[in-house]
Amino acid sequence: MSFNRPMKQTKTRHEIEKRPARITKSVSLPKFIVSRLEQSIVQNPPSFNFNKQLAFFFLHLIAVRRFTDPECDEYFEGFVTLDAFLLEHYSYSYRKYFKYFTDWGIIEKRNYSTDKHRANSFRFIYDSNEDYTAFVEVDLSNLKKLKNFEVFEKFNGKPEKCPHLVKWFYEGLSIEYETAIAEAQTEEHFLKRQSYLLGIEKIKNKEYWFTRNSKSDNRLHTPLTNLAKKIRPNLRFRGQKLANFDIRCSQPYFLVVLIEEMYTSVHTLMFENVKDILYTKGFQEEYNRIKSWILKDDFYTKMAEELFNGEEILLERTEWSGKGKTKEMKKVIYDNERELTKKLILRLFYIDTNSHQYKHDKDFKKFDTKFPQFSALLKELKRENYKDLSRILQNKEAYCILDIITQRLTQIYPKMPLFTIHDSILTTERWAERTNLGTLIQTMMLEANGVKPQINS
User: Fold this and answer.
1) Of 72, 76, 25, nearest in space to 195 by CA
2) Do 54 and 97 touch, CB atoms closer than 8 A?
3) Taking the mean position of all CA atoms in its chain, how far away is CA 58?
4) pTM for the whole thing?
5) Cβ neighbours of residue 259 under 8 Å, at least 6 residues apart?
6) Could you give the CA distance from residue 29 to residue 107 in angstroms, rounded to a whole number?
7) Which one, of 367, 216, 370, lies nearest residue 285 by Cα?
8) What is the DSSP secondary structure assignment for residue 295, as one 8-state letter?
9) Residue 194 in 3-state DSSP?
10) What is the CA radius of gyration of the chain?
11) 220-262, pLDDT tens digit by residue?
12) For residues 91 and 263, what is the distance between their CA atoms, to the nearest angstrom?
């Protein structure tokens, strides 16, 4: 039987085509998990056609899911959800593997709950006598014999159409390993700390992946986008430190870009009633204030002053965290009013304004009262689907950074290494100084979008 035949196109419940699992030939896993599985296989031989490398792949999914969203460790006690449709896509026998894992104390399962709106989720079982800081590389190269797997020596990024960025990962990216480990060990929360350690291990071993989905946020996702901010200063390119340049208030900035485009192309918009808001005196007055804060001032500080006007507010909140069926309530303590306001504004872009949560939130009511016309515009942009606005803004950001700015920089300076973390562009300190990169990015974005952002460095 040939294992190289084209894979049958399979789609999820959301009609998005499933691709084969694209993995490097070896992956890092916690040493205690690898040892526990190998011991279990000897002591409790599986009663079904067991593929050890496939078993390690399933365990790797749990580890990677935690690394992708370290917050799930802190708020969901290390449990992560895995899509049953995708698991079945990889192997129809996946249930047997996960039952084996749970039966013999390798992982534990938290069952689906309709009352708590919670999907099946899994986490590793920890023992206080084991060393959790050690990782080992596991060979998965034989999975290439299975039809739903593609095993690579290294990814080239071509499917994501960002080879101008991906190539630099293999041409000198590294991490100051010991220093990064020491920094990760300062994280107080045990499970979150484990995610940091895994991220460091994967960069050290060059276990890179690159995904970009035009049907969602269109952003380029890489191991850097998931690496904790406190660990990023330890990244190096050919031994040199990296300088980071990011767009200040990125999502609000791209909202300004969107509104400016609306004024010149209202007749092409899918939002029929937008023009009735855009040209009102009230909206223009509110928008001009907000636009000035975003482009020339500290937007979140100004907004906090406007919304709360010096009144004492609670910085400890209970909020929903997670997505879909993984949502749970958690306590959050903000450092100051600015940080609280930043979260509030970003939630405005993502929340369903017809939801009970929105209508009964005191902070949203303050915004509606202070900026009624601007609030009306946000609601109109989300009228068909409340996710439309956030998708538009993320897609604008991704297109600008990935397809315009970094492409132009590559054309002008083909030897300058470039990395991105969503709205951030990174290069070596030497190249940043040589090219005056922050100012150059501003100029390019002004040409591309018609408005100049503020750049943090």
Assistant:
1) 72
2) yes
3) 21
4) 0.84
5) 278, 287, 291, 377
6) 14
7) 370
8) H
9) helix
10) 24
11) 999 998 898 999 999 999 999 999 999 999 999 999 999 999 8
12) 51
